[in-house]
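Q: Structure tokens for this one, please.
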Amino acid sequence: MKKKSKRYREILKKKIKDKKIKINEAIDLIKKNSLTKFDESIDVSLKINLKQSKGGDFNLRTIVNLPNGSGKKHKVAVLCEADKSDEAKKAGADIVGSDDLIEKIAAGKFDFTKLVCTPAMMSKIGKHGKVLGPKGLMPNPKLGTVASDLSKAIKDIKTGLVEIRNDKDGNLASTIGRKSFSSEKLIENFNYFIESVKKEKPDTIKGELIKSIFLTSTMGVSYKVGAK
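A: Here is the predicted structure, written as tokens:
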């Protein structure tokens, strides 16, 4: 069994067990205990209710555009027609291509973290879905990665857009910022994120959609928090 570091053991002593605390308290504790030299991610983890009154289990997959950004840096590749290349480059795309980019993807060269595609190019990229899908890179209109307005799509990804989806057990996790963000910005992002998830609740689910909420940092311990 791997031995826990002295830093982590000290933080663990400050963990609050089996008690919900307010979001501002959780943020203050996480920031205070975040003693690493790098800018740790502040992450929220939810347990959601998947049981519908009829039909199969509910699955949530959507995007949330955080008001203060996520602090996460993405390397964006854009697959588009030749006459849209300049638009993509001016918007901040890191990689822009057409058939040449498809050839790189076919060869397994994925030197990007997000792939944006124009609707006209979807027929060409479709056959590579089995490779792109498991890596979370397959363009999807619902996730803002299939778009005619490339400038908006790239800007959204580069700023505050985060993709969320639950696993089979109803767990859902996402970042809401970095420890360098002010507490006010983190709280605003948190509240916006929670409200966005609540809006996805279908009528076929009885009771609350969100069962529990935990907040943590990359190298810290988690705290159970209330919805507000």
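A few notes: The chain has a mean pLDDT of 89. The radius of gyration is 20 Å.
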